[in-house]
Amino acid sequence: MRAQVETTLRGPESYSLARRVVDEMQAANVWPTPVNFELWLHYLGDPEGPLGREIQRLLAADEPFTDAMSDMLAAEYLPRGRLSEEIRDAGRVLDRELASVADAISKAHQSQSAYGDTLADASAGIERVENPDGLKTLVTTLTTATLKVQNENAALEKKLETSTREVAKLREHLEQVRRDAMTDALTNLANRKAFDEHLSAACEAEDADSKALTLAVIDIDHFKRFNDTWGHQTGDQVLRYVASVLARVARHPRMAARYGGEEFAMIFPSESAGTVEAALNAVRHEIASRALRRRSTNDELGAVTISAGFAQRKRGESASALLERADAALYVSKRNGRNQVTAADVLDKAA
């Protein structure tokens, strides 16, 4: 699965996997382009996944690994490729609807122009009417022209209603695509991209209203031990468990994200350092209080613990500097025995 590959790429196995990818690509006469390299990373990182099985099928059939083949596989199986294809599809739908509306408006404009000419002719001709038959012909012409304009307007109104519904559905679809692009597939928390954007916006908001902003960085203790002992699937189970606890605590306006690997981050707008520390300790106690079991075998995994560090933003401090101070506090928690929360302000005072 993709999340398993992402975890592997941020661990000690990543370099050996990357070297193996290059060797396997060379053996298969596949050029090491960026797209091919990403495809083969996912293939070798998860050979039993959908992409892995498809590449194995192509290799067994001795099909050439062309650029067109790579693009097709990326669009079908890689998250960024699927996202790009979704956006392209949305663009095509929008272009079609806009062209259709423009055509309907053009026809209505032509009809209105013709109707204006008809009214002008009727106005000039009414003075020349000399008998009832001539008047009747003139009224019939005006009635026919009026009905035609009414029908054109009705068709335009119907087309606009249809297009409005289509564009609303398209907007909803694109919003879902945007949410998917900002969500970590394994934990359903915000991903790194969403976190970076949210933190940047939170810093700007704090500069505008002078309210406190606190950033916490959280790391699962001895996570490598879970992966090495029980495998990546059990490691994924641990990640999901920790994420579920963070998600319950991170109610709006708080925000929790998977920062990378076994590391998470939380943003606390407008909260005191004491409140943030209490919330992090509550998370720490809840996670440690439950003994996890391996789903496949029901073996007991033991307790999971986390370490955390947090920092309150200083006036005008950049997002990267704030993150660096929170990280420093996290590593103090690690060095001091893990399973604890450290405030960066304490380190600043000690320094």
UniProtKB/TrEMBL annotation:
SMART domains found in the cross-reference section: GGDEF
Keywords noted in UniProt: Coiled coil
Coiled-coil segments: 146-180
InterPro entries recorded: Diguanylate_Cyclase, GGDEF_dom, Nucleotide_cyclase, Rev_trsase/Diguanyl_cyclase
Protein's UniProt keywords contain Cytoplasm: no
Domain GGDEF: 211-346
Gene3D superfamilies: 3.30.70.270
Catalytic activity, as annotated: 2 GTP = 3',3'-c-di-GMP + 2 diphosphate
Enzyme class: transferase
Enzyme Commission identifier(s): 2.7.7.65
Record-given protein name: diguanylate cyclase
